[in-house]
Amino acid sequence: MRVRVAAVVVAVLAAAGSVVVAPAVVRAEATTSTIVTLRSSDALRAIAALERAHGFRAEHRYTSGLRGFSARLSVRQREALRSDPRVSSVHDDRDVRLVTPIAAARRGDVPTGVRRVGGGSVAASVAVAVIDTGIDLRHPALDVSSGANCIAGKRRTSAAQDDHGHGTQVAGTIGAKAGGGAVGVAPGTKLYAVKVLDARGSGTVAQVICGIDWVTANAKRLGIAVANLSFGALAPGDRDCGVTSGDPLHEAICRSTEAGVTYVVAAGNDAADLASAVPASYPEVLTVTAVSDSDGRPGGDGQAPSCMPGERDDAPATFSNYATRVADLSHVVAAPGVCITSTWPGGGTKTISGTSMAAPHATAVVALCISSGRCPREPESAIRTVMADAERHATDTNGYDGDHDMRSERRYGSLVWAGK
Ligand SMILES: [Ca+2]
Prior knowledge:
9 helices
């Protein structure tokens, strides 16, 4: 069973495609979507030369996150590129998609999760990139600009308008202003929409890397300090930026982190060890598990969450991935992720659940911490400070059920805290 509840927002990555055998007589060769990384520092020049040499047209060109491109390539072209000295590696592209969230009851103006992490009062002075389905660029509660549209077949210059809802929901938890029905953790924070998933919540790793590439290239110019990735997949990770596993998504995130962007990612909704999930298992990111909170207060005496059966107040969400290894726990925090009310395209709000909804609480906390000067801008130090704040706040009276249970095999991290 991959998805526990329809309302849990998850992404599924298809298995890497196998080699397609070309027919003996080729007129129109079968092609597969491929990600190619390059040795050259001048990626655009190298891509143009490779296009001419091997007869293909690149779809996405990566110049900042990693150097390379994606393209539909035949077996013959892939083999030729593998042996081309300008090429570092050749990878199958993979699919990424979300399960469509379902609607639930409307709630008050300051959502429970925002209250539970001590947020809802001030904007961050740094900007946040939401790499997702886009954001509703006309939503009155959001201070949002279009960043990049990485959907295959669309012009990259077209607006990153959300035609799904997921990205707008994530964006609202980070930075929705008062008056829109659901205040965010850091209301009024500047948001950039980076669209890598389409109207069905589907996308590819090539598109995700396109989004990361845009963030890396523009972070300094636009003041983007934090990026939110509320999707993921079950796939083996590695601890060396994709070198051993040949994972271009990991390489792209490492390069972007080196450029000063802190990545906050959802742990995943498989009720499984996040060691087998990406990007959750990457050591460079802050990974966010989901806990339940129904009343915005600690103590565990709130009612059971109303929109989702089987959960209880101030306890880990039953669907959330968790850490078992010390190495993973060293970059994991928890945040509210059950029955989270936030902005929805068209001006309203919607209440849904998932580690997708937990991650933006932590994203806003990181942005606020950097803005206050308490967190260094450097990602590793920022993550360490946010984790120390969370641990300090996880006292017997403020924590959630199980966050101190060192004997448990399932560890969800300490609840993030935006307050002083
Ligand atoms: Ca509570």
